[in-house]
# Entry
Amino acid sequence: MTESIDTRQRLLDAAGELIHASSYREVGVQQICDRAGVRKGSFYHFFPSKRDLALASLDQSHDFARDNIFNTSFADDLPPLERIKRFFDALYRFHRDIKQNTGFVLGCPFGNIGNEMSAQDEVLRSKVDHILSSCEQPFARVLQEAVARGDLPDIDIEASACALFAYTEGVMLYAKTRNDPELIRELGERALNLLTPAASR
# Structure
């Protein structure tokens, strides 16, 4: 049982690394198996198709982002707007470390697949849409708290949370395109300007 779980995990890890570094279309089942050290027959024991593996890998990446970036950044030990600044700092460090290891800023694993496959595969599009929508919720909660405290005026919470996370995705795209994680730090410092000039003081 332990060996079976380990094999599945190696496939998930390999798929996540390879697709994030390349693209969904470019990475084949054999390449994933080679990276994982798993025979192709074992692949199909766990996953009926590459798409099924990609869906599970997206869930794993989402769990990692939630536990290691979102939950820690939005913990309530800081005033609400300071948590947004901490989020961008954590995002910067995450992508900086990836570049140090690979030589490249790889961008958002969800945005990458969404951009590549949304017009081609409805199942993958729907999965990415669900993940991105869930990523807006920590922003919505912190903005609600900021309004209640009087740190922000009475804004449209859901629309503002969507705008902030859309900005986040754009920042990661710029950083990937220029291969420069410093853009995440620099542009992250300006994120609160989207809400109100008063919030950025």
Observations:
- The CA atoms of residues 4 and 87 lie 36 Å apart.
